[in-house]
Design a protein that fits this description.
With 81 residues, the protein is mainly alpha-helical. The chain has three helices and two strands. The protein has one domain.
Length: 81
């Protein structure tokens, strides 16, 4: 189980933040900038749908589909635009 961050940092970009929410891809607690970027990824809607399906089945601890392969490189390219 991934613990809530107590150091005031995003678990994905490691920037200081005072507000995080859980990723749809995995159990990382991310800042709003990282979550906004995540929503633009082509596999985001798959992750969202599978999470909602799990909740409907009563599986409330769904860990996500995992961070897609190449996500970090994809995110770096998107952030420089």
């Amino acid at each position: 189980m991934n613990q809530l961050p107590t150091d005031g940092k995003c678990q994905r970009c490691h920037k200081d933040t005072n507000c995080t929410s859980m990723s749809r891809f995995n159990t990382q607690m991310c800042c709003s900038d990282c979550l906004d970027l995540e929503k633009k990824h082509p596999k985001y809607h798959v992750a969202e749908t599978l999470e909602l399906d799990a909740i409907k089945q009563g599986r409330y601890n769904f860990k996500g589909i995992g961070l897609p392969s190449g996500y970090t490189k994809w995110a770096c390219v998107r952030q420089t635009r």
